[in-house]
Specification:
5-stranded antiparallel beta sheet, 77 residues, alpha+beta, globular, 17% helix
């Protein structure tokens, strides 16, 4: 089964205060949220599988090729 191909990713560079929700050096999907980004926040799909707002400074955005994004979108049934 496939889900929609994610378009943006970031790596966590600071999980202080969020050890159960964010793993240091882990790749996370970022969901578009222009209003939150203007406030310095990113909408991240965290360890719970849900999306939450986190300070953007905790992440570094990555440019990920389409083939990698497609591979990350594959889910097993």
């Amino acid at each position: 089964m496939r889900k929609a191909v994610p378009s943006q990713f970031a790596v966590c560079v600071n999980n202080e205060g969020y050890p159960a929700s964010l793993e240091f050096r882990k790749l996370y999907e970022i969901l578009p949220d222009e209003k939150s980004e203007q406030a310095g926040l990113l909408r991240v799909v965290d360890e719970s599988g849900e999306d939450y707002l986190y300070p953007a400074a905790r992440f570094l955005r990555l440019s990920v090729p389409l083939a990698v994004r497609q591979a990350l979108a594959v889910t097993t049934a």
